[in-house]
Amino acid sequence: MELIRGPYNLAPRHRGCVATIGNFDGVHLGHQAILRRLREAGDRLGLPTLVMSFEPHPLEVFRPGEAPARITPLRDKARALAAAGVDRFLCMPFRPGLAAMTPQAFIDELLIGRLGVHFLIVGDDFRFGRNRSGDFDTLREASATRGFELERTPTYQVDGARVSSTRVRQALAAGDLAGAERLLGHPYTLSGRVVHGDRIGRELGFPTANIRLRRRPTMDAILVADVDLGDGPRPGIASMGTRPSVGGRKALLEVYLLDYSGSLYGRHLQVTFRHWLRGQEHYDSLDALRGQIARDVEAARAWYGLS
After folding, report:
1. Pair 28, 145 in one domain
2. Which residues contact 143 (CB under 8 A, 6 or more apart)?
3. The domain spanning residue 289 has which CATH number?
4. Measured between alpha carbons, how far apart are the two ends of the chain, in Å?
5. Whole-model pTM over 0.85
6. What are the start-end ranges of the E strands in the chain?
7. 253 burial class (0-12, 13-18, 19+ CB within 10 angstroms)?
8. In contact, 39 and 85? CB cutoff 8 Å
9. Sign of CA pseudo-dihedral 280, 199, 289, 238
10. How does pLDDT run along the chain (307 residues), one tens digit per residue?
């Protein structure tokens, strides 16, 4: 899959495609249904498939206090889109110029002029352009005059309700990993590169690999997690959140691998969350925290069936 960062990296060879537009956070089963329809249209018309998304999320720009937690960072989203057969991922920087673009300019300059869209699939509730004034009806009028096909996204239900990123976030926040897996179509997974931390885990006797989370996390929890270093999953335990016992403010994913020794700095890890142990809690002393971590590790070992 080709990742295109912004409209100014679009080249003449990128004209002519079938496209969809959305945040695609989590690339859940509903998204996957859209991508299948996109792939079918691409095969029928003999054109590449393109997903347009925005970075950062528009709410993170206009109303950051209301912005939802991120299910997947950009790298994981791109990997999931590629796995779904997407040919091109156009990541649009959400900046004032884009936010101020009128719906007609968005259609004429971007969809038609730069992308040459032949087929577009979006949801009934899709809004775009200045003050979110463009909608599905706007696109329907344009499709009739500019000659591209327009389709509504299919409704995809699990457990009697529509699958959405909001439902995935709610399941994760409640510790319902099985429910999130039913909506995603796979266990919840995050990946990232290990960075240097404050070495508190090492001081406590449980050295952790630290992965920074650039956005608000979906969970504040301690979880059993499979950790893949590139050679297959290994048993581990993960802490996701702001670490209230050590005065943490920035979100962090910390991973402790069971029965492993060696440096992980700079390595890229894939962390698959398997079982919820407990929520993040505050402890009055490092000794109390050390004791709880030891109990969490024993619980993880029992879950894996390790002696």
Report:
1. yes
2. 120, 149, 150
3. 2.40.30.30
4. 43
5. yes
6. 2-5, 17-21, 49-55, 88-93, 117-122, 149-152, 157-158, 161-162, 189-193, 209-212, 221-228, 233-241, 252-257, 268-279
7. buried
8. yes
9. positive
10. 999 998 889 999 999 999 999 999 999 999 999 999 999 999 999 999 999 998 877 777 677 777 789 999 999 999 999 999 999 999 998 777 777 889 999 999 999 999 999 999 998 788 888 888 889 999 999 999 999 999 999 889 999 999 999 999 999 999 999 999 999 999 999 999 988 766 665 666 577 889 988 888 899 999 999 999 988 999 999 999 876 545 555 788 999 999 888 788 888 999 999 999 999 887 777 788 888 888 999 999 999 999 6
> Which domain range does residue 39 map to?
2-158
Residue with tokens 């950051």: 64
Please check whether residues 147 and 200 belong to one and the same domain.
no
Cα 269 from chain centroid? 16
> Is 117 among the domain residues?
yes
- 74, 105 contact by CB (below 8 A): no
User: What one-letter code names the amino acid at 146?
Assistant: R
Per the DSSP assignment, residues forming a β-bridge with 115 are none
Q: Are 122 and 21 in contact (CB under 8 A)?
A: yes
